[in-house]
Protein backbone atom coordinates (compact mmCIF):
# COMPACT_ATOMS: atom_id res chain seq x y z
CA UNK A 1 0.00 0.00 0.00
CA UNK A 2 2.75 2.44 0.88
CA UNK A 3 4.83 4.15 -1.79
CA UNK A 4 7.22 5.58 0.78
CA UNK A 5 9.57 2.63 0.84
CA UNK A 6 11.62 0.80 -1.73
CA UNK A 7 9.97 -2.10 -3.49
CA UNK A 8 13.13 -4.11 -2.78
CA UNK A 9 12.04 -4.33 0.85
CA UNK A 10 9.86 -7.25 1.85
CA UNK A 11 7.07 -5.16 3.36
CA UNK A 12 7.33 -1.97 1.30
CA UNK A 13 3.75 -2.39 0.11
CA UNK A 14 2.28 -2.20 3.61
CA UNK A 15 1.12 0.57 5.92
CA UNK A 16 0.81 0.08 9.67
CA UNK A 17 -1.12 2.29 12.06
CA UNK A 18 0.76 2.02 15.34
CA UNK A 19 -1.32 2.97 18.39
CA UNK A 20 1.15 1.40 20.82
CA UNK A 21 3.54 2.88 23.34
CA UNK A 22 6.39 1.87 25.66
CA UNK A 23 8.06 -1.33 24.38
CA UNK A 24 6.18 -4.50 23.30
CA UNK A 25 4.07 -2.83 20.59
CA UNK A 26 6.76 -0.38 19.41
CA UNK A 27 9.25 -3.28 19.19
CA UNK A 28 6.88 -5.16 16.89
CA UNK A 29 6.27 -2.03 14.81
CA UNK A 30 9.99 -1.33 14.52
CA UNK A 31 10.63 -4.88 13.27
CA UNK A 32 8.00 -4.39 10.57
CA UNK A 33 9.34 -0.93 9.74
CA UNK A 34 12.89 -2.30 9.35
CA UNK A 35 11.48 -4.79 6.87
CA UNK A 36 10.12 -1.90 4.82
CA UNK A 37 6.60 -1.23 6.08
CA UNK A 38 5.44 2.34 6.45
CA UNK A 39 4.62 2.85 10.13
CA UNK A 40 2.52 5.77 11.34
CA UNK A 41 3.04 6.16 15.07
CA UNK A 42 0.11 7.88 16.76
CA UNK A 43 0.99 9.77 19.94
CA UNK A 44 -0.70 12.02 22.47
CA UNK A 45 -0.32 15.73 21.72
CA UNK A 46 2.12 17.44 24.05
CA UNK A 47 3.65 14.38 25.69
CA UNK A 48 3.69 11.45 23.26
CA UNK A 49 4.91 7.94 24.00
CA UNK A 50 5.57 7.46 27.72
CA UNK A 51 9.18 6.49 27.01
CA UNK A 52 9.99 9.94 25.59
CA UNK A 53 10.31 11.07 29.23
CA UNK A 54 12.04 7.93 30.54
CA UNK A 55 15.41 9.55 31.01
CA UNK A 56 18.14 10.38 31.58
CA UNK A 57 20.06 9.41 29.56
CA UNK A 58 19.02 11.52 26.57
CA UNK A 59 20.45 11.87 23.10
CA UNK A 60 23.15 14.54 23.03
CA UNK A 61 23.51 17.15 20.32
CA UNK A 62 26.74 18.09 18.54
CA UNK A 63 27.76 20.32 21.47
CA UNK A 64 27.24 17.57 24.05
CA UNK A 65 23.99 19.00 25.42
CA UNK A 66 20.99 16.82 26.19
CA UNK A 67 18.12 16.91 23.69
CA UNK A 68 14.56 15.96 24.63
CA UNK A 69 14.91 12.47 23.09
CA UNK A 70 15.25 9.76 25.77
CA UNK A 71 17.49 6.80 24.99
CA UNK A 72 14.67 4.39 25.92
CA UNK A 73 12.39 5.89 23.26
CA UNK A 74 15.16 5.82 20.66
CA UNK A 75 15.60 2.06 21.15
CA UNK A 76 12.26 1.08 19.62
CA UNK A 77 11.02 3.74 17.21
CA UNK A 78 13.18 4.15 14.13
CA UNK A 79 11.73 4.15 10.61
CA UNK A 80 8.40 5.56 11.83
CA UNK A 81 6.42 8.74 11.23
CA UNK A 82 4.99 10.46 14.31
CA UNK A 83 1.47 11.91 14.20
CA UNK A 84 -0.11 13.51 17.27
CA UNK A 85 -3.85 12.93 17.75
CA UNK A 86 -6.11 13.30 20.79
CA UNK A 87 -7.72 9.90 20.55
CA UNK A 88 -10.12 10.70 23.42
CA UNK A 89 -11.92 13.33 21.33
CA UNK A 90 -14.56 12.55 18.68
CA UNK A 91 -12.56 14.46 16.06
CA UNK A 92 -9.43 12.53 16.97
CA UNK A 93 -11.29 9.24 16.79
CA UNK A 94 -12.45 10.12 13.30
CA UNK A 95 -8.85 10.78 12.25
CA UNK A 96 -7.81 7.36 13.59
CA UNK A 97 -10.75 5.76 11.79
CA UNK A 98 -9.75 7.36 8.49
CA UNK A 99 -6.09 6.41 8.93
CA UNK A 100 -7.10 2.81 9.73
CA UNK A 101 -9.03 2.64 6.46
CA UNK A 102 -5.81 3.61 4.67
CA UNK A 103 -3.75 0.97 6.50
CA UNK A 104 -3.20 -2.78 6.32
CA UNK A 105 -2.49 -3.37 10.01
CA UNK A 106 -3.47 -1.72 13.28
CA UNK A 107 -1.34 -2.32 16.37
CA UNK A 108 -2.67 -1.23 19.77
CA UNK A 109 -1.92 -1.80 23.44
CA UNK A 110 -4.75 -0.02 25.22
CA UNK A 111 -6.48 -1.54 28.23
CA UNK A 112 -9.12 -4.14 27.39
CA UNK A 113 -12.32 -2.43 26.23
CA UNK A 114 -10.91 1.09 26.07
CA UNK A 115 -10.90 1.40 22.29
CA UNK A 116 -14.36 -0.11 22.07
CA UNK A 117 -15.67 3.00 23.84
CA UNK A 118 -14.26 5.03 20.95
CA UNK A 119 -15.51 2.60 18.28
CA UNK A 120 -11.90 1.94 17.35
CA UNK A 121 -11.87 -1.72 18.36
CA UNK A 122 -11.51 -4.52 15.83
CA UNK A 123 -15.24 -5.16 15.49
CA UNK A 124 -15.90 -1.50 14.67
CA UNK A 125 -13.02 -1.06 12.23
CA UNK A 126 -13.67 -4.39 10.54
CA UNK A 127 -17.01 -3.04 9.36
CA UNK A 128 -15.15 -0.27 7.55
CA UNK A 129 -12.27 -2.44 6.30
CA UNK A 130 -13.01 -6.20 6.28
CA UNK A 131 -9.45 -7.24 5.36
CA UNK A 132 -7.86 -5.29 8.25
CA UNK A 133 -5.34 -7.09 10.45
CA UNK A 134 -5.70 -5.85 14.03
CA UNK A 135 -3.24 -6.82 16.77
CA UNK A 136 -3.97 -6.07 20.44
CA UNK A 137 -1.15 -6.35 22.99
CA UNK A 138 -2.06 -6.42 26.69
CA UNK A 139 -0.63 -7.77 29.90
CA UNK A 140 -3.07 -10.64 30.31
CA UNK A 141 -5.12 -10.98 27.12
CA UNK A 142 -8.69 -10.15 26.22
CA UNK A 143 -10.32 -12.71 28.51
CA UNK A 144 -9.75 -14.47 31.82
CA UNK A 145 -9.93 -13.15 35.40
CA UNK A 146 -6.92 -10.81 34.96
CA UNK A 147 -7.92 -9.34 31.60
CA UNK A 148 -8.65 -5.87 32.98
CA UNK A 149 -5.40 -5.61 34.95
CA UNK A 150 -2.64 -3.35 33.68
CA UNK A 151 0.32 -5.39 32.49
CA UNK A 152 3.88 -4.52 33.49
CA UNK A 153 6.90 -6.49 32.34
CA UNK A 154 8.46 -6.74 35.81
CA UNK A 155 5.27 -8.13 37.34
CA UNK A 156 4.81 -10.57 34.47
CA UNK A 157 8.38 -11.86 34.86
CA UNK A 158 7.44 -12.77 38.41
CA UNK A 159 3.97 -14.15 37.69
CA UNK A 160 5.13 -16.15 34.67
CA UNK A 161 7.80 -18.11 36.54
CA UNK A 162 10.88 -16.49 35.06
CA UNK A 163 12.12 -15.01 38.33
CA UNK A 164 11.78 -18.36 40.09
CA UNK A 165 14.44 -19.63 37.68
CA UNK A 166 16.68 -16.56 37.56
CA UNK A 167 19.06 -15.50 40.32
CA UNK A 168 21.57 -17.14 42.61
CA UNK A 169 20.73 -20.33 44.50
CA UNK A 170 18.79 -19.67 47.68
CA UNK A 171 21.49 -21.33 49.81
CA UNK A 172 24.27 -19.06 48.50
CA UNK A 173 25.06 -15.42 49.31
CA UNK A 174 22.85 -13.14 47.24
CA UNK A 175 20.38 -15.92 46.56
CA UNK A 176 16.84 -15.09 45.62
CA UNK A 177 14.61 -14.18 42.68
CA UNK A 178 15.99 -11.85 40.03
CA UNK A 179 14.43 -10.13 37.05
CA UNK A 180 16.21 -9.92 33.72
CA UNK A 181 18.32 -6.87 32.93
CA UNK A 182 16.00 -5.96 30.06
CA UNK A 183 12.22 -6.18 29.73
CA UNK A 184 12.18 -9.66 28.25
CA UNK A 185 8.40 -10.20 28.48
CA UNK A 186 7.84 -7.00 26.51
CA UNK A 187 10.55 -7.76 23.98
CA UNK A 188 9.48 -11.35 23.40
CA UNK A 189 5.85 -10.27 23.10
CA UNK A 190 6.95 -7.81 20.43
CA UNK A 191 8.75 -10.62 18.62
CA UNK A 192 5.79 -13.04 18.86
CA UNK A 193 3.47 -10.24 17.72
CA UNK A 194 5.70 -9.70 14.68
CA UNK A 195 5.39 -13.37 13.76
CA UNK A 196 1.63 -13.31 14.30
CA UNK A 197 1.19 -10.23 12.10
CA UNK A 198 3.26 -11.73 9.29
CA UNK A 199 1.24 -14.94 9.55
CA UNK A 200 -2.01 -12.97 9.33
CA UNK A 201 -0.65 -11.15 6.28
CA UNK A 202 0.06 -14.45 4.55
CA UNK A 203 -3.49 -15.61 5.33
CA UNK A 204 -4.93 -12.33 4.03
CA UNK A 205 -2.90 -12.55 0.83
CA UNK A 206 -4.23 -16.08 0.22
CA UNK A 207 -7.86 -15.50 1.21
CA UNK A 208 -8.52 -11.76 1.33
CA UNK A 209 -9.57 -12.16 4.95
CA UNK A 210 -8.30 -9.98 7.80
CA UNK A 211 -8.22 -11.17 11.39
CA UNK A 212 -7.79 -10.27 15.04
CA UNK A 213 -4.63 -11.08 17.02
CA UNK A 214 -4.76 -11.25 20.84
CA UNK A 215 -1.23 -11.07 22.35
CA UNK A 216 -0.62 -11.20 26.12
CA UNK A 217 2.64 -10.66 27.99
CA UNK A 218 1.80 -13.39 30.51
CA UNK A 219 1.11 -15.93 27.75
CA UNK A 220 4.46 -15.13 26.16
CA UNK A 221 6.35 -15.27 29.45
CA UNK A 222 4.90 -18.70 30.20
CA UNK A 223 5.59 -20.00 26.69
CA UNK A 224 9.22 -18.85 26.59
CA UNK A 225 10.29 -20.92 29.59
CA UNK A 226 10.71 -23.73 27.06
CA UNK A 227 12.59 -26.72 28.51
CA UNK A 228 12.04 -25.57 32.10
CA UNK A 229 8.30 -25.85 31.51
CA UNK A 230 8.80 -29.35 30.17
CA UNK A 231 11.05 -30.35 33.06
CA UNK A 232 8.11 -29.63 35.34
CA UNK A 233 5.41 -31.08 33.10
CA UNK A 234 7.36 -34.33 32.67
CA UNK A 235 8.14 -35.06 36.31
CA UNK A 236 6.14 -32.47 38.32
CA UNK A 237 9.31 -31.40 40.17
CA UNK A 238 9.45 -27.63 40.48
CA UNK A 239 12.67 -26.23 38.90
CA UNK A 240 14.82 -24.00 41.10
CA UNK A 241 17.32 -21.21 40.58
CA UNK A 242 20.90 -22.14 39.73
CA UNK A 243 22.32 -18.67 39.21
CA UNK A 244 25.08 -18.85 36.61
CA UNK A 245 25.48 -22.60 37.05
CA UNK A 246 23.69 -25.47 35.30
CA UNK A 247 21.48 -28.03 36.99
CA UNK A 248 22.83 -30.96 34.97
CA UNK A 249 26.35 -30.03 33.77
CA UNK A 250 29.50 -29.14 35.75
CA UNK A 251 31.42 -26.95 35.05
CA UNK A 252 28.95 -24.88 33.05
CA UNK A 253 29.05 -21.49 34.74
CA UNK A 254 30.88 -18.23 35.32
CA UNK A 255 34.24 -17.90 37.03
CA UNK A 256 36.12 -14.85 38.28
CA UNK A 257 39.56 -14.40 36.69
CA UNK A 258 42.27 -12.08 38.02
CA UNK A 259 40.73 -9.16 36.12
CA UNK A 260 37.14 -10.00 35.24
CA UNK A 261 34.82 -12.92 34.58
CA UNK A 262 34.55 -15.67 31.99
CA UNK A 263 32.02 -18.34 31.10
CA UNK A 264 33.20 -21.94 30.85
CA UNK A 265 30.78 -24.39 29.24
CA UNK A 266 32.44 -27.81 29.44
CA UNK A 267 29.69 -29.96 27.97
CA UNK A 268 31.53 -33.27 28.10
CA UNK A 269 34.32 -35.05 29.97
CA UNK A 270 36.90 -34.35 27.27
CA UNK A 271 36.29 -30.61 27.40
CA UNK A 272 36.49 -30.69 31.19
CA UNK A 273 39.86 -32.43 31.06
CA UNK A 274 41.19 -29.85 28.60
CA UNK A 275 39.94 -27.07 30.88
CA UNK A 276 41.83 -28.23 33.96
CA UNK A 277 44.90 -29.11 31.91
CA UNK A 278 44.93 -25.53 30.60
CA UNK A 279 44.81 -24.37 34.19
CA UNK A 280 47.77 -26.55 35.14
CA UNK A 281 45.76 -28.92 37.33
CA UNK A 282 45.22 -32.15 35.33
CA UNK A 283 44.79 -34.08 38.60
CA UNK A 284 41.30 -32.62 38.84
CA UNK A 285 40.38 -34.71 35.78
CA UNK A 286 41.90 -37.89 37.19
CA UNK A 287 40.22 -37.62 40.58
CA UNK A 288 37.41 -40.23 40.63
CA UNK A 289 35.11 -37.69 42.27
CA UNK A 290 35.35 -35.49 39.19
CA UNK A 291 36.26 -37.61 36.15
CA UNK A 292 32.71 -37.96 34.80
CA UNK A 293 29.93 -35.42 34.56
CA UNK A 294 27.54 -37.32 36.90
CA UNK A 295 30.33 -37.39 39.50
CA UNK A 296 31.02 -33.70 39.02
CA UNK A 297 27.35 -32.84 39.43
CA UNK A 298 27.18 -34.95 42.59
CA UNK A 299 30.34 -33.32 43.99
CA UNK A 300 29.93 -29.80 42.60
CA UNK A 301 30.19 -28.15 46.04
CA UNK A 302 33.67 -29.65 46.45
CA UNK A 303 34.86 -29.17 42.87
CA UNK A 304 33.66 -25.66 42.04
CA UNK A 305 35.72 -23.92 44.76
CA UNK A 306 38.83 -25.73 43.48
CA UNK A 307 38.12 -24.60 39.93
CA UNK A 308 37.44 -21.06 41.13
CA UNK A 309 40.86 -20.88 42.77
CA UNK A 310 42.46 -22.20 39.58
CA UNK A 311 40.73 -19.66 37.35
CA UNK A 312 41.69 -16.68 39.56
CA UNK A 313 45.36 -17.25 38.78
CA UNK A 314 45.07 -16.00 35.18
CA UNK A 315 43.54 -12.99 33.46
CA UNK A 316 40.44 -12.98 31.32
CA UNK A 317 42.39 -12.62 28.02
CA UNK A 318 44.78 -15.42 29.06
CA UNK A 319 41.94 -17.80 29.80
CA UNK A 320 40.06 -17.01 26.60
CA UNK A 321 43.19 -17.64 24.53
CA UNK A 322 44.04 -20.88 26.35
CA UNK A 323 40.55 -22.34 26.22
CA UNK A 324 39.90 -21.38 22.61
CA UNK A 325 43.18 -23.03 21.64
CA UNK A 326 42.17 -26.15 23.58
CA UNK A 327 38.68 -26.28 22.09
CA UNK A 328 36.86 -25.63 25.34
CA UNK A 329 33.68 -23.52 24.89
CA UNK A 330 34.22 -20.24 26.68
CA UNK A 331 33.55 -16.55 26.45
CA UNK A 332 34.01 -13.27 28.27
CA UNK A 333 31.29 -11.46 30.19
CA UNK A 334 31.46 -8.15 28.41
CA UNK A 335 30.25 -4.79 29.58
CA UNK A 336 28.21 -3.04 26.91
CA UNK A 337 31.14 -0.85 25.86
CA UNK A 338 33.13 -4.04 25.29
CA UNK A 339 30.26 -5.50 23.27
CA UNK A 340 30.46 -2.68 20.74
CA UNK A 341 34.26 -2.93 20.67
CA UNK A 342 34.12 -6.67 19.91
CA UNK A 343 35.45 -7.38 16.41
CA UNK A 344 32.67 -9.86 15.67
CA UNK A 345 29.97 -7.38 16.64
CA UNK A 346 31.69 -4.75 14.51
CA UNK A 347 32.05 -7.13 11.58
CA UNK A 348 28.33 -7.85 11.73
CA UNK A 349 27.52 -4.13 11.58
CA UNK A 350 25.49 -4.07 14.77
CA UNK A 351 25.91 -0.31 15.30
CA UNK A 352 24.41 2.07 12.77
CA UNK A 353 24.15 5.86 12.50
CA UNK A 354 21.25 7.87 11.11
CA UNK A 355 20.74 11.62 10.65
CA UNK A 356 18.74 13.27 13.43
CA UNK A 357 17.10 16.71 13.37
CA UNK A 358 18.20 17.64 16.91
CA UNK A 359 21.60 15.98 17.15
CA UNK A 360 22.89 15.83 13.55
CA UNK A 361 23.09 12.05 13.97
CA UNK A 362 22.12 9.26 16.35
CA UNK A 363 23.82 5.92 16.96
CA UNK A 364 21.38 3.00 16.96
CA UNK A 365 21.54 -0.79 17.19
CA UNK A 366 21.04 -2.60 13.91
CA UNK A 367 18.38 -5.20 13.31
CA UNK A 368 19.76 -8.75 13.61
CA UNK A 369 17.63 -9.85 10.62
CA UNK A 370 19.90 -10.34 7.62
CA UNK A 371 18.08 -11.27 4.40
CA UNK A 372 19.85 -11.68 1.08
CA UNK A 373 17.10 -10.57 -1.32
CA UNK A 374 15.04 -8.20 0.86
CA UNK A 375 17.42 -6.72 3.44
CA UNK A 376 16.22 -4.50 6.23
CA UNK A 377 16.43 -0.78 5.53
CA UNK A 378 17.36 2.09 7.81
CA UNK A 379 15.55 5.14 6.52
CA UNK A 380 14.76 7.45 9.39
CA UNK A 381 15.81 8.09 12.97
CA UNK A 382 13.10 7.82 15.63
CA UNK A 383 10.84 10.79 14.92
CA UNK A 384 10.35 13.90 17.01
CA UNK A 385 6.93 14.17 18.63
CA UNK A 386 4.40 15.05 15.94
CA UNK A 387 7.13 15.50 13.34
CA UNK A 388 4.96 14.13 10.53
CA UNK A 389 1.45 15.16 11.59
CA UNK A 390 0.84 17.67 8.81
CA UNK A 391 2.62 15.55 6.20
CA UNK A 392 0.59 12.39 6.92
CA UNK A 393 -2.78 14.13 7.21
CA UNK A 394 -2.10 16.05 4.01
CA UNK A 395 -0.97 12.99 2.06
CA UNK A 396 -3.35 10.30 3.30
CA UNK A 397 -6.48 12.18 4.33
CA UNK A 398 -6.20 15.23 2.04
CA UNK A 399 -6.61 17.65 4.95
CA UNK A 400 -5.84 21.21 3.83
CA UNK A 401 -4.03 23.85 5.89
CA UNK A 402 -7.27 25.36 7.15
CA UNK A 403 -8.44 21.98 8.44
CA UNK A 404 -5.10 21.36 10.16
CA UNK A 405 -5.14 24.82 11.75
CA UNK A 406 -8.64 24.20 13.06
CA UNK A 407 -7.67 20.83 14.55
CA UNK A 408 -4.55 22.31 16.10
CA UNK A 409 -6.48 25.21 17.62
CA UNK A 410 -8.77 22.66 19.32
CA UNK A 411 -5.70 20.65 20.46
CA UNK A 412 -6.96 17.62 18.54
CA UNK A 413 -3.54 17.31 16.87
TrEMBL record:
<dbReference type="InterPro" id="IPR050483">
    <property type="entry name" value="CoA-transferase_III_domain"/>
</dbReference>
<keyword id="KW-0808">Transferase</keyword>
<dbReference type="InterPro" id="IPR003673">
    <property type="entry name" value="CoA-Trfase_fam_III"/>
</dbReference>
<dbReference type="InterPro" id="IPR044855">
    <property type="entry name" value="CoA-Trfase_III_dom3_sf"/>
</dbReference>
<dbReference type="GO" id="GO:0008410">
    <property type="term" value="F:CoA-transferase activity"/>
</dbReference>
<dbReference type="Pfam" id="PF02515">
    <property type="entry name" value="CoA_transf_3"/>
</dbReference>
<protein>
    <submittedName>
        <fullName>CoA transferase</fullName>
    </submittedName>
</protein>
<dbReference type="InterPro" id="IPR023606">
    <property type="entry name" value="CoA-Trfase_III_dom_1_sf"/>
</dbReference>
